[in-house]
Amino acid sequence: MPLLAAETPQAPAGTARVVCLDGLRGVAACAVVVFHFFYAFTPGPFADKARTGFSLFDTPLAFFWNGHFAVAVFFVLSGFVLAASAPKSTREAPLMIGLRYLRLGVPALASSILAWAWLVSFPDAAREVQALTGSPWFRWTYQPPIPPLSQAIWEGAIGVFVEGTTRFNNPLWTMQAEFFGSLLIYGGYALLRGGARPLAMALGLVVFPALGLFYLAAFCGGALVYELRGRLRDHLWLGAALGLAGLVLGATYPGRAAGEDLASQFVASLGRDGPRQAGALLLLVAVLITPPLRRVLETAPLQRLGELSFPIYLVHVPLIVAPASAIFVSYAPVSASGLAMLFLGTCLATLALGQLFLIAVERPVLAGLKAIRRRARAWLAAS
């Protein structure tokens, strides 16, 4: 979560790896952390459904705290990655889909157990912060009595894929979307060949929004960019224009009140489903064709964030709703400087816990799945 599931984009054999997308994924993961932290403790601008006036929420800078847009970016990146790793035959498709489920499910399960442990340790923290701040975000977190560990295991491993939600670790709602997107891309690529693939993905960009399935359109968009990648050429000014257009369309925080005139209605649509996914798609293209932007995203710190992106995504909410919330309650009312210190501490704790998750869960899962895939492909080739 993804590329959201932290799979590194892999180009076809003999071509360069698209490392800049790792950096983009890392920045998007950080935006989700910022979004959830401030939605929890300063919910006003995030919960306002009829925003008026002008603020930073109405600018491209909102990319750095717009969790909605970050998830759209994840889905577009996942479409790109899934197209790159698509099954080589219809026989291989069930294997790849099964491995994809494990790729998503095992880390989701581990994070659900971790979230349960934090909630049991700080059972009243989320409820007390909600009473202080009025944040509606906490409705997605279990309040006492906390369900048993068996429920956390069920929801992390299976429930989120079936129901699309869990209140142990609420970001896991994206696991269902990721798995359905995987079924779409892997299944479609197993059945289609050559020029039929980009045509099918382009059709998905039209059909799925009409059905209200905007997240599947994002997967199709990412796969379409992968299919057309050979036609992309570096172009600084076009890339800058596409990137800015993408941020205006998608990163503008949704919720602005609409007026009666067409212009205000258009502005009110920015950041909502449709413009959001279109903006994420434009941003992907912008990254791929803009050399200075690629170089920034390929720097060591952002590459490191990219490696940690899935662990960060999975561990940050348990930290916010449990220990960070307990600290917030203990020092309430919290000043602006106090909130800044709490935010810094939460970020550092997220990075530390994310590193532990990377070592204990992420890397072993990736290594195990790689070994299974290699042996299974050898068996399929021999049979």
What are its keywords?
383 residues; mainly alpha; 15 helices; 70% helix
Structure description:
The radius of gyration is 21 Å and the shape is globular. It contains 15 helices and no strands. α5 crosses α14. It is an all-alpha fold and 383 residues long. 70% of the residues lie in helices and 0% in strands. The chain has one domain.
Please tell me the overall pLDDT: 93
Along the chain, the helix and strand elements come as HHHHHHHHHHHHHHH
Strand fraction:
under 5%
Largest sheet: none
Global geometry: globular
Number of strand elements? 0
First CA to last CA: what distance? 35 Å
Structural class: mainly alpha
Q: How many domain units?
A: 1
Count of DSSP-assigned helices: 15
Unreliable residue runs: 1-15
Tell me the radius of gyration: 21 Å
Please give the share of residues in helix: 55-70%
